[in-house]
## 1
Amino acid sequence: MSNASDRALRIGVVCYPTFGGSGVVATELGKGLAERGHEIHLFSYAPPARLDAFDEHLHLHEVEVSSYPLFKYPPYDLALASRLAEVAEDSDLDLVHAHYAIPHTVAGLLVKDILKPRPFPVVTTLHGTDITVVGQDPSYARVTRHAIRNSDAVTSVSTYLKTRTEEVFGLENGMHVIPNFVDTERFRPQRNPHIRGCFSRGNERVVMHVSNFRPVKRAGLAIEAFATIAEAMPSTLVMIGDGPERATCEAQAGKLGLKNRVRFLGAQTDIENLLPNADLFLLPSEYESFGLAALEAMACGVVPVVTDAGGLPEVVRDGVDGLLIDADAMETMGTRSVELLGDEERLAAMGAAARTAATDRFDRGDIISRYENVYRSVLEVVPT
Ligand code: GMT
């Protein structure tokens, strides 16, 4: 292997393709690394939603799982490891970067074993639910711990998640905290009069929520907060995304007499064209290890109103570029939103501060460089 300190690297990136934040971050990182001339091989079971433009340095490998009748549970992790090993050999990959420990890191470790004695470092990025939900499920806990302990480097998207991981798995092996980033060219404060007009007639306020409607997102609390807003001023709530709690939320909006004021758009691919048309973004999650959706809103100059829990206070600064709602007083999400929406000057100042935070504190170039440093450091320490 030639000296890895400055040459372009050949990197396998493994992620989930769906609308979850981990797939978005992995794909955006892959795109950024490819722009810098690294050869990026992306592995997933379907094309990731954000992989929308050709780049000669970006190669997609869709992992297919055979459905032999004996396999009641087709072994995706083995199909992934097999494909990864083939590409690692054919394209001489330097390392693999797994986003989500289960099963991506485990597949990476298997390939590392297959390729021995040639070195094949495994870098793992923990996104949150792989630790807080999946990792603590007794059926996955041992394997998650093994995956994290045996990775050559582990990164975590927030200090909160790093601390949680150390507590849950008793690890003290120097995890790097590398926050998420957003493409601030794509997500920018540019309203579209047509889209805005679909949600707001005249001076109506537009409030948005984006999530996968899983229980941890507590999308119902966004509707409760909106009921308070709707009582105080003409307004519309736009709910974007889909998932297990959507039907309950639709019923809740009906019961509250808000059927005509809450719009459910389902999963959307061009969130960047919708978000800038909001006045406020609500994210009442029980916790978020980071809260990428809030950062996307901030990049669009939209003020996020989020729970003061998990890694969210590392993204949103209360009263500066958003509002942090006390986790024990979620009923104040509505009243604090009303106050802010009623103060045009403060709302505009905080929206501008949110945009600046997204461009400066979560700078894409800086964060991509931090990942590059991790890659180069693991390539320096593996035996050549
Ligand atoms: O939030 C989800 O349900 C999806 C999940 C994922 O793994 O894709 O999101 C997690 O990773 C994102 C990207 O790092 C973070 O921004 C989210 O905060 C985190 N979700 C939770 O911690 C609940």
Note: The domain at 193-361 is CATH 3.40.50.2000 (Rossmann fold).
## 2
Amino acid sequence: MEKKAVLIVSFGTSHLDTMEKTIGKIEEDVSEAFPDRKVYRAFTSGMIIRKLKRTENMQIDTVKEALERMEADGITDVAVQPTHIINGIENDRMMEEIMSAMGKFHRIRVGKPLLSSVDDYKKAIHALMAETVLREGEVLVLMGHGTEHHANAAYPMLEYTFHALGYTQVLVGTVESFPELKNVMTKLEISGKKKVLLMPFMLVAGDHAKNDMAGEEDSWKSELEAAGYEVRAMLKGLGEFEGIRRIFLEHIREAL
Ligand code: CO
């Protein structure tokens, strides 16, 4: 008799409020959708794991530790689903850990990150727009994370796809890579619009969303306001969108 499990792998966040609403909710949905599989949690950020231990006395496994725990629990059939947005550095690292643990189980299958196929982009966009109400004349500016990995191409692809689907009032920038806020601002100027709704395009609304995006100083909000825009900031992580969580469930089903 196979003992089955799903390992949900997230970058992680030290903000417990958003963790519950995003990572916690995804895990809940997975456990409902796959009642024959026990759900395990791992984070890929060692920094966040250490911070949670220190400040909340919360113990979270790395991918390696979670796989060891599953083996010790007698799990033989493993599905792994990352909650990563793109197939970048965190996903590569996760894959390395999984590869070296292959021998521990009868079967390991791995689902893809959020934005993998062209269909994923379209579904993610529809999921976002289905739950986002823009005011008259408002432009939606999304803050993605961004990476030095070649997978950063996902962000311009995302904006392109928004426009191809008719959502021309949406712009995508990244906090750590390209496109930058200044590239977004150039497009905003061309649009002639004066109102902006800021939202993270990240799984959680954690540090980057609260500080770099919506903070009162040195943030996208403050820079846009200084440039004369009327700005609303929405602290809602992608994991809070039902349609986004549904894509992750589909990726598990695909892998199985
Ligand atoms: Co970051």
Note: Strands lie at 4-10, 38-43, 77-82, 107-110, 138-144, 170-174, 195-200, 230-233.
## 3
Amino acid sequence: MKITGVEAIPFSVPYAKPLRFASGEVSAAEHVLVRVHTDAGLVGTAEAPPRPFTYGETQTSIKAVIDGIFAPAVLGLSPLAREVAHQRMARTVGNPTAKSALDMALWDLVGQSLGVSVTDLLGGFTDRMRVAHMLGFDTPEAMVDEAARIRELHGISTFKVKVGRRPAALDVAVCRALREAFGSTVELYVDGNRGWSPSEAARALKAMEDLDLSFAEELCPADDVLGRRWLVRQSSVPTFADESVPTPADVTRELLGGSADGISIKTARTGFTTSQRVLFQCEGMGVDVVMGNQIDGQIGSLCSAAFGAAFALSSRRPGELSNFLDMTDDLLTEPLQIVDGELAVRQGPGLGIRIDEEKLTRYRQDR
Ligand code: MUC
Ligand code: MG
């Protein structure tokens, strides 16, 4: 089987409710659908969600780098030759989301050709993931209402609270309101998206000391090298690295430097091949992971779940797999369902993605 073509299709689906956080805001899923065609007639599929404010990629840049550089680099290769594809793509630095979508589409093809799911191909640990839901910036009342609604509708009881506003008292009030409203029936953790300085983060963590937070993600920027180490040393909760660790080398740097205790793995930015490396690296170093969300649509969430469920360590914690609930629509013929706080992995073969062509025609932006 050989790769005969790669399509990068920009599409946009509006959000019902924008998601706001310290580094930006998302009000439409302006993503790129990636399809890898083969001479066997099989098509591998994945989606690339650009986050310009985080990695500098845009919908336009992702399409351009795939059309102009990555597609020509993989044409004629066997989808099994993922290491060759990666070696060729690695000549171009950056562009993690574009590379990852292509990588996941290749794994989809390998799974399809063998007749097995990607979860089984990777590790086959379980067939489902517990789900954590992200609460974007709003008033304490609105965020408590949102958590109650999501718990009622989908049985989700783990919430990641977006923090990093200034003054931090706004976010402390939200976390306190959530804990008071739900007591010990919910798990809470926070994500600052680099919004605070190390000293602001230290004060905020101290003010939330009694709230039983499971961990705190990316409270201040990785470039605050000494400040981050200082923060980690005194933090009463484990600190996780997210956008500071887009590569395995970054993971090494953050962990060995004492700047993080755990790692967020996002298939949108490390695909399956590199996510696997990061996961094994964390396992080898005895470090916790969480399956994060790059504000993926249903295709991306399905990919995260497929990876998370494949391994013991990545399925241990609830994964962030519910951002698609904020979208008005999506491209799958069979929408994802979160039931009793869990998302089941598609049984495949491959990733089990089937695109509704009528919806793609409606939302694609290149025609
Ligand atoms: C998160 O965990 O930070 C926000 C920006 C991004 O790249 O991912 C989201 C969620
Ligand atoms: Mg994060």
Note: Residues 3-115 form a domain with the Enolase-like; domain 1 fold (CATH 3.30.390.10).
## 4
Amino acid sequence: MRERLYHVLESQQFDRELLDHLCALTTRFREVGKTTEGALAMKRRHVGKRAALYFTQVSTRTLNSFRAACQVLGMDWLEISDPNTSSEVKGESPIDSVATFASYADAIIMRSKLPGLAKQAAEYFDRERPFRPWHTAHVVNGGSGQDQHPTQALLDIYTLYRAFRERGGIEGKTIAMVGDLKRGRTVRSLAYLMRHYPDVRLIFVSPPAFQMEEDIKAFLQKHNIPFEETEDLDAAVNVADAVYMTRVQDDLDKEKGATPIFFQERHLKILGPHAIVMHPLPRREELDPACDHDPRIKIWRQERNGMWMRAAVLDYLLKENDPLEGMREVA
Ligand code: NCD
């Protein structure tokens, strides 16, 4: 049996066994949550536990799905969204600010525009724990700069796993990642997980200015995951089992000379009958809302999956003994 993860910081930490375990737990939570007895059993799982939500970079889905996940598990939460309302304005470092949270919480979920801050915080806690044994908080990366967004990648894997469960699973599928692949942290984190699904093929569709970074391409090469780079969305939609759209990340920094690649209603006609379209959201014009009625567009299902998967992640981190305690009898 693998060593338990203490923190969730980057996609490279996951192996197939853990991905399968989290997907199974997510399905269990979704099913159990449908009955009152089941919902109550889940609410008793983490009574007295608290999460701290340190979100100094904007968030709609990640923040709210973690809040909802805490509610599902009967946990409370504390929150800092604006560093201007914390002692960081007095010159306190982000790490001290996070360490303060650790004094009150069992898990710290962090989003920051600083790449690596979650990892830095986790390393700091691990180093200091012998001196401050009450600082036991698990760190969860909720998005670190342009670097990684591992819990988004987990909910994306769950969405793919559900979509292809009767068609041989994720293995062997062709996945097109489209848009700003250079600065989008969701596609970076998802690309790392592909190594656990044999025979997956990736198509990176982007304008030249937004191509996937070399570190990811080197990782894929090292693990023999075939990928190609193109600007031709039509050709990719024609052959893909999943089309993963992303927006241009121009809130982070402006990149001149590149326009987004658009998925429009006409693409629905060339999309395979069993293929799916995903998007981490927020979207802009790159995925036309007129497509939303099509059952192959999974973007709202993906959001919902996020709440259950994040509940599974928190449960995995905080429940070290029996993963189904109190839930065996409820369905
Ligand atoms: C993404 C993010 O924050 O990286 N959003 C999300 O968490 N669902 C994608 C984005 O902002 O484009």
Note: The pocket of N-carbamoyl-L-aspartate is lined by residues 61-62, 143, 149, 152, 185-186, 247, 280-282 (CB under 6 Å).
